[in-house]
Design goal:
- Pfam families: DUF2281.
- InterPro entries: DUF2281.
- This is DUF2281 domain-containing protein.
- The chain has four helices and no strands.
- It is mainly alpha-helical and 75 residues long.
- The longest helix is centred in the middle third of the chain and has 19 residues.
- The protein is elongated and about 55 Å long.
- It starts with 5 loop residues before the first helix and ends with a helix.
């Protein structure tokens, strides 16, 4: 394994000392950081934001987070 740079070493040490549930949160955050750079995801969020604002003005029912995630998984 190549030598870790200073930032990698610090991150590794800090994450290693966390309990498993917090390590999962760190992993989820890393995945969030990676996916938020995905242009398709950004376009989807922008599209859904526009739709949500229109739905709010029209007093329509909002989708739950599970429904939004299921819809995103279909695209």
């Amino acid at each position: 394994m190549p030598a870790l740079n200073e930032v990698d070493r610090i991150i590794f040490e800090k994450v290693s000392s966390l309990p498993d549930n917090q390590k999962r949160e760190v992993l989820s955050f890393i995945e969030f950081l990676q996916i938020k750079q995905d242009k398709e995801f950004i376009d989807y969020v922008n599209e859904m934001t526009t739709k949500t604002l229109k739905d709010k003005q029209a007093k329509k029912k909002f989708l739950s987070l599970n429904e939004l995630q299921a819809e995103y998984d279909r695209i």
